[in-house]
What does this fold into?
Amino acid sequence: MYAYKEQDKLFQSLCCEVSLSYIAALVFLSLFFSHPLYLLALFFALNLVILSAGIVRQWLTYLKFSLTLIFLIILVNALFVRAGATVLLYGVSVPLIGNIRITLEALCYGAGMGLRLLVMLGSFCLLTYAVHPDLILKTLGGGWSKIMLALGISLRLFPLITDDFVRITEAQRCRGVDFKVRNLRQRLEKYVPVLHTVLLSSLERSFQLAESLHSRGYGTTKRTNCREVLWRPRDYLVIVTVLLGSAYGMALVLTGRNGYGYYPKLQPFKEQEIIIAVCLALFFCFPALLDWGWEKWRFLRSKI
Amino acid sequence: MKNKIFILIILLMLLLLIFGLIPNNPLFSANWALISFLFLGVVIFSFFASFELRHPSAKEISLIATMAALAAVARVPFAILPGVQPTTFLVMITGWVFGIQTGFVVGALAALSSNIFLGQGPWTPWQMFCWGMSGVSAALLGGRNKAFDLLSFTILATAWGYIFGWLMNIWHWVGYIYPLNWKTFMATYIASFPFDTLHALGNLVFSLAFGTTFYHVLWRFKRKISVIPLNHNKD
It folds into this structure.
């Protein structure tokens, strides 16, 4: 039922804290960076990790969806921003926009921001498809026991409610209700009793669930929890590179080298910036490199 | 205690704003997308924390989980239709009947749990916030009315079709558009107008078709769980 599918890949086998740290580091760094080279480095590293995690098909779905968003970002930047000096196209006057003046800088800014969006989407794609949701709940559940309990129960109820809906629709169909009627209003009217019954049965179930929780001792004493987390060498290796990469990224932010001058003219890339981008890419593609070694050498696999 | 926490949260938000505006600190160089993320984090955190501190009973927990699951399930078949989201209606009717906190938590959890199946993204915290706040607003309106007022509910639900889109546009506008001025703001909002209208129309139809029925079912259930208390938690 989950979007997540179990695979024999290194990223999936990492301890949840490590995978979440990797994803959080990428999301926050992409929000801090506006330099296209650094964003490109993160994007490159992320793609390698996605490839190694075996979720390319799902990533392509994300990419397809993000194309519309990126197009909108570039369009709005190109049409409305007049700060650029390199004019590519002059056009007619349009209400609200004024004279159309598309500049290279605005297009590049739009593309840069599109890259930022891709890094964020890629990170969330990893979160959805390469980290087990139950492990996330367990990891975050320590301090948020009630919220996580409610979330856990709602995830368990998801397939049950879907089954209820299918079962009740089938029952109605057996009684001669036609759900494929063309008139939209009539069709909606036929669904009203179905959804009404689904709601009723779900609420009844919730009452039974409450009794069950109560009979198992929920709320009678302070909640206790015990969770053993197995940290393997691969977890230590990845967390060290994530921490190093994050520290390196934050050092760039604190020294004010995370930005890039798009306006009024695109600033040329310096050699030092290219080296920084390569270092960032190396830090964040480490899980992919490790996965490659993991797949290739049994010895390494047995040791980490 | 509650007032102190409230003041602390407001101060925290003001600090975030100040750090975003004053030069020579790391948040100044960060963009407004990050600051808005932190803002949302503070709001969601405060609602969740107050829920945790209230020690909800087993019945509340299971009710919230059920309504969140229902709202999340309702979202999936409509995912192919951009904008149409029965989740908003379900969260709002829950908020109307069960109050502010339940409304917010159901909205936030519905967004989080449905995205576990549909796919997480930078939009998840924003959806959590928007659906949570739609539940809060319905609860506030419900608190002012003694009986269910379908007209007021439908107007609010329809308005939330647009408010939801306008709030969601913020992450797009602050995160990916430069400069942040009136023109780019308008352009972003115009681009989302058709989707927001679909959402509003969907809410209107769902409210008219299911509003009264669902209200009666939920109200009866509320009375049922209030009349037969299991117990109050002491942990």
Summary: The CA atoms of residues 62 and 68 of chain B lie 10 Å apart. Chain B touches chain A through 69 residues (CB under 8 Å). Residues 55-227 of chain B form a domain with the Arp2/3 complex 21 kDa subunit ARPC3 fold (CATH 1.10.1760.20).
